[in-house]
Amino acid sequence: MSTSIEDLKLVNSGKVREIYEIEDDLLLVASDRISIYDVIMPTAIPDKGKVLTQMSNFWFENTTGIVPNHFISNDVPEEVAGRAVRVRKLEMYPVECVVRGYLSGSGWKEYQQTGAVCGVGLPEGLKESDKLPRPIFTPATKAEMGDHDENVDFDRAAEIVGDRHLMEELRRIAIEIYEYGANHAAEKGIILADTKF
Questions:
Q1: What are the residues whose beta carbons fall under 8 Å from the beta carbon of 148, sequence distance 6 or more?
Q2: pLDDT for position 49
Q3: d(Cα 186, Cα 197) in Å, to the nearest integer?
Q4: Strand partners, 87
Q5: Where are the beta strands (DSSP E) in 4-158?
Q6: Could you report the per-residue pLDDT of 21-31, keeping only the tens digit for each?
Q7: Which secondary-structure segment (H or E) carries 149?
Q8: What is the three-class DSSP state of 37?
Q9: How many CA atoms lie within 13 A of 121 on its CB side?
């Protein structure tokens, strides 16, 4: 499902979301598309965009004590109600801030080859999906549509951002948000293996 909103300028169409200009702000619209390992699947999941938006709203509201965010309101055009939010325009950093509390996915593959994930050394003998001794920050590049995100070490991420001190602050904030989310999820019987910001 792609969205089209009359009278609004489409700024970007990503793997899962469309971004429109709405006055001096942006409208983020979550589609029902599925992206797995940076590939868009041919079949959408009905109302997935609505679920993603409501989950995002929950976390935006509950993490403002850790870091301010771009959320303004859910007051959006009727045709995208429930799947869109109005946000402030911000300059995005060209990295994804990934935090892992468990060893799975691409982190597991890298660990098997190197004993580390994104340059973060880990104890020997870990098994797939093991809980890590502490959450680790494993940044990635933000790939363009059709390309794959690439895991990078902290030094490379700092180089991409152009400011090591800023990258250290992004790492601190990302880990704090992950820990908050992981603790909240654990209270509900859910494991938050990893996430990205």
A1: 37, 38
A2: 96
A3: 20
A4: 26, 71
A5: 9-13, 17-22, 25-30, 35-36, 39-40, 71-73, 84-87, 95-96, 98-102, 116-117, 120-121, 131-137, 140-141
A6: 999 999 999 99
A7: none
A8: coil
A9: 2
Half-sphere exposure of 81 (CA within 13 A, CB side): 4
Secondary structure element (H or E) that encloses residue 49, with its range: helix 48-62
- Nearest-5° Cα angle at 71, 1 to 3: 15
Q: Which of 19, 27, 13 is nearest to 78 (CA)?
A: 27
Domains of the chain: 9-87 (3.30.200.20), 95-196 (3.30.470.20)
Amino acid at 6: E
10-residue mean pLDDT profile of the chain (197 residues): values are: 76 91 96 86 94 96 96 94 96 94 95 97 98 98 71 97 98 98 98 94
CA–CA distance, 131 with 126 (Å, rounded to integer): 9
CA distance 72 to 90: 12
Residue type, 123: P
Q: Locate 116 and state its tokens.
A: 């580390």
Residue type for 20, please? Answer: Y
